Amino acid sequence: MNKKNLTDTAILTVAGLSKSFGGVKAVNDLSFSVKKNHIHAIIGPNGAGKSTLFNLITGIIPPDEGEVRFFTTDITSLRSDQIAKHGVSRTFQNIRLFPDMTVFETVLIGTYLLTGAKLAPALLRTKAFRENERVAKQRVEEILKFVGLWDVRDEYAAQLSYGNQRRVEIARALATQPQLLLLDEPTAGMNPKETKELMDLFTAVNNEGITILIIAHDMNLVNTLSDHITVINFGEKLVEGTADVIQKHPAVIEAYMGKVKVDA
Ligand SMILES: Nc1ncnc2c1ncn2[C@@H]1O[C@H](COP(=O)(O)OP(=O)(O)OP(=O)(O)O)[C@@H](O)[C@H]1O
Ligand SMILES: [Mg+2]
Predict the structure, then answer these.
(1) Half-sphere exposure of residue 45, counting CA atoms within 13 Å on the CB side?
(2) Residue boundaries of the structural domains of the chain
(3) Ligand 1 close to Cβ of residue 48 (< 6 A)
(4) CATH code of domain 1-87+178-264
(5) CA of 1 to the centre of ligand 2 (A)
(6) Nearest bound ligand to CA 217?
(7) Are 50 and 94 in contact (CB under 8 A)?
């Protein structure tokens, strides 16, 4: 039944990562690795440090201590655009879309990072620029068809349904051709139908060979999709393993399942 080519190669390694905000240790000496081709879930109560972890991995904020490696490359001190160029892409917990851009334009912007579009060639519309643009538009078309947004490509992204707005963000993240995609609570606030459709999309993305690190509270999603789960509490790793192991773990039941309302 296992159609995926699961490997033991670590695509991402977090080692001794720490970040404090004032007196709050949001992430505290955290270490784990994500294996290539896995869907790896990060779960934990509100305020456990999950989004902070993503911000540290993607260079939004610098860690106080510790290291982040993409394969064997140290990406700890790189800027977020440099990390994206290495092949790490993400979506944010709160949807971030420009109000006056169409779906197509939004995703096209995502490809600029790869084509390295510069202002002068763009203004002069050099041959190289036009060729880059043609390739980029072709890629946007492929992605929009893949995520199921091709029919709404000319609509304003921010005016779509909530589920489709999330799809736009995922499409934009895919535009940088990531090897690793980080999703921060992508189905929070979605209805069951939207959630199911997004779960199918994550599976399809993963089947394209893209490793997924996903933060989620929805235990049905976590248990259905995850090859591996890391549970975080107070910025520290509480336990990790497969869904079977996690569900039965007393510390998880105590610290997480028992006290937290599981998804809305
Ligand atoms: N920029 C910041 N400045 C100050 N404190 C912050 C900042 N970002 C996060 N924190 C604090 O760090 C802790 C971890 O927050 P974080 O957002 O990472 O949690 P989370 O696990 O993503 O929670 P949730 O499930 O609610 O999204 C919280 O106590 C939060 O208030
Ligand atoms: Mg969060």
Answers:
(1) 17
(2) 1-87+178-264, 97-177
(3) yes
(4) 3.40.50.300
(5) 33
(6) 1
(7) no
